[in-house]
User: Which sequence fits this backbone?
């Protein structure tokens, strides 16, 4: 017999395992030895037989009626189990439905929230845009209807000969607008760009787009004794005006 | 090797068939009641223990693994441990004290023996008391060999040898009974 099998059999692990007193580790060890070593298996089987025989020596007649009580309890337990099982299935279905609908509503809520943010931003943008436009319209109205407003004809020179524009300046309200009514055709790689000299500095007023900005009043930054220029610049505009390309002067 | 009735009960248990409980009770009820009584030493308590044990057996039916233990071993474990737990919860004493009490009353339960148990009771007396005490301490009273050695004031080596001899004696008794039964069946 192997030494470790003998050591195992000499210990009381197998007896403890037999009566259900073994710890988790001892149980694993006992089950492993029973499976691996025939002599341990035989001893265990013998112990089981002896335990049964020994316990039988203490057999005692069960009281009358106990059997019926026990059977009734077991049946009740079974009914409870069946009921529990039924309820468990119902609860599981309900939980799954609830989880499914929760997820559906959650994702709905998420997309609605995103949509809401988008709409809010859009409204805010439109509101700001509308305010700006209203302000612009109001100013245009003031400028055009105010008796203090002076009107200047702007005519182009050289390549911009056909350029026609009217500048409206109101020194009282300190507002100025320009209406470019005709923009001459320029080569594809060129464009008209407006500038204003305000307090000694040249401010870029942007590129005049050929069609879009025609007959539209464009606000100009106001300054006393300001000078406006229109230059021909490379397509897309320039960062500073090309003096040699000035095609119009607007003296306010 | 499991008997036919054992296999039948196991299959009924696995199917959660009520008949399993009835068959278990008929085949093992008295022995398990005796085990419960031996541990708790009170008829009413032993009834409670048996009832609780049967409910546990019924609930745990699907955990029984025939490859790991005989049906009786499994039933014994549940009943014995339910009885020990019951005793602990009632007495709220240490396991040690309980075991000392139990070791004083080895012959309890004899008065409740029915005629069909007389033969096994006779067999009980065929085992020398010194072996019986050790077997009872280890099988019924939840003691380890070391604890039995301490409680009974017997050296550990003697506990081990008495356990082995006691079990051998038990085997001899039943071996003889089985041989006699076989002879009775064979002889005309």
Assistant:
């Amino acid at each position: 017999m192997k030494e470790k099998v003998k050591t195992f059999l000499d210990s009381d692990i197998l007896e403890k395992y037999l009566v259900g007193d073994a710890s988790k580790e001892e149980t694993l060890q006992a089950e492993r030895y029973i499976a691996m070593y025939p002599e341990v298996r035989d001893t265990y089987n013998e112990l089981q037989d002896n335990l049964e025989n020994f316990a039988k020596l203490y057999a005692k007649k069960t009281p009358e009626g106990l059997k019926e009580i026990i059977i009734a309890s077991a049946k009740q337990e079974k009914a409870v189990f069946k009921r529990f099982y039924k309820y468990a299935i119902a609860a599981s279905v309900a939980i799954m439905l609830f989880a499914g609908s929760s997820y559906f509503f959650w994702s709905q809520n998420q997309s609605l929230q995103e949509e809401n943010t988008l709409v809010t931003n859009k409204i805010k943008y439109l509101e700001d845009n509308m305010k700006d436009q209203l302000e612009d319209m109001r100013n245009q109205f003031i400028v055009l209807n105010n008796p203090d407003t002076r009107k200047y004809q702007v005519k182009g020179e050289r390549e911009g000969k056909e350029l026609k524009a009217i500048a409206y300046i109101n020194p009282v309200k300190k507002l100025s607008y320009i209406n470019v009514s005709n923009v001459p055709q320029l080569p594809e790689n060129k464009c008209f760009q407006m500038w204003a000299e305000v307090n000694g500095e040249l401010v870029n007023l942007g590129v005049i787009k050929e069609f879009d900005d025609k007959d539209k009043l464009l606000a100009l930054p106001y300054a006393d004794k300001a000078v406006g220029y229109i230059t021909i610049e490379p397509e897309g505009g320039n960062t500073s005006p090309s003096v040699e390309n000035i095609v119009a002067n607007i003296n306010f | 090797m499991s008997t036919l009735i054992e296999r039948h009960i196991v299959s009924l248990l696995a199917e959660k068939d009520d008949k399993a409980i009835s068959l278990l009770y008929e085949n093992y009820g008295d022995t398990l009641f005796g085990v419960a009584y031996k541990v708790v030493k009170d008829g009413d308590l032993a009834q409670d223990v048996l009832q609780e044990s049967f409910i546990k057996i019924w609930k745990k039916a699907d955990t029984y693994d025939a490859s790991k233990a005989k049906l009786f071993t499994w039933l014994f474990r549940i009943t014995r441990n339910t009885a020990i737990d019951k005793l602990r919860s009632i007495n709220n004493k240490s396991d040690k004290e309980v075991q000392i009490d139990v070791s004083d009353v080895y012959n309890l339960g004899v008065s409740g023996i029915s005629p069909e148990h007389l033969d096994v009771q006779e067999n009980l007396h065929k085992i020398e008391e010194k072996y019986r005490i050790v077997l009872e301490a280890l099988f019924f009273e939840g003691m380890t060999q070391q604890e039995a050695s301490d409680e009974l004031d017997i050296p550990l080596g003697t506990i081990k040898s008495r356990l082995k001899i006691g079990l051998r004696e038990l085997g001899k008794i039943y071996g003889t009974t089985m041989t006699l039964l076989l002879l009775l069946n064979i002889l005309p």
Chain A has a mean pLDDT of 82. The interface with chain B takes residues 10, 12, 15-16, 18-21, 31, 46-63, 66-67, 69-71, 73-75, 77-78, 81 of chain A (CB under 8 Å). Strands of chain A lie at 150-155, 164-170, 175-182, 190-198, 201-208, 217-220, 227-234, 246-251.
